[in-house]
Amino acid sequence: MHRAIYRFSPNDYKEIDKIWNGVHPEDGQPLYVKDGPPEGAPIPDLEEKPEMFSPGLSSEEIEELAARLSRNI
């Protein structure tokens, strides 16, 4: 898995294989590009949580700021 780079959309990063190629420097195995997300468990649908570790603006403050900026244009 450490040799793969995942391209989540076939329309993005179309030429990533031009830089992600060759072999892994530690084990000599080939590097490769893989379309789609890696296999794994389904992504859980978690409830929204307020910012805890890096507080910033609340959604209400962002909406108020956007409204004020729109009026000034």
The percentage of residues in β strands lies in 5-15%
Helix content: 10-25%
Shape: elongated
For the record, give the distance between the C-alpha atoms at the N and C termini, rounded to a whole number: 49 Å
List the secondary-structure elements in sequence, H or E.
EEH
Q: What's the number of helices?
A: 1
- Rounded to an integer in angstroms, the radius of gyration calculated over CA atoms is 21 Å
Report the mean per-residue pLDDT as an integer. Answer: 85
Low-confidence stretches: none
Strand order of the largest sheet: 1-2
For the biggest sheet, the summary is: 2 strands, parallel
Structural class: alpha+beta
Question: What is the tally of beta strands?
Answer: 2
What does this molecule look like?
The chain has 73 residues and is α+β, with helices and mostly antiparallel strands. It has a domain at 1-37. The protein is 18% helix and 11% strand. The chain is built from one helix and two strands, in the order ββα. The chain has one helix at 59-71, and strands spanning 4-7, 32-35. It has a two-stranded parallel sheet. The N and C termini lie far apart (49 Å). The mean pLDDT is 85. This is Manganese catalase.
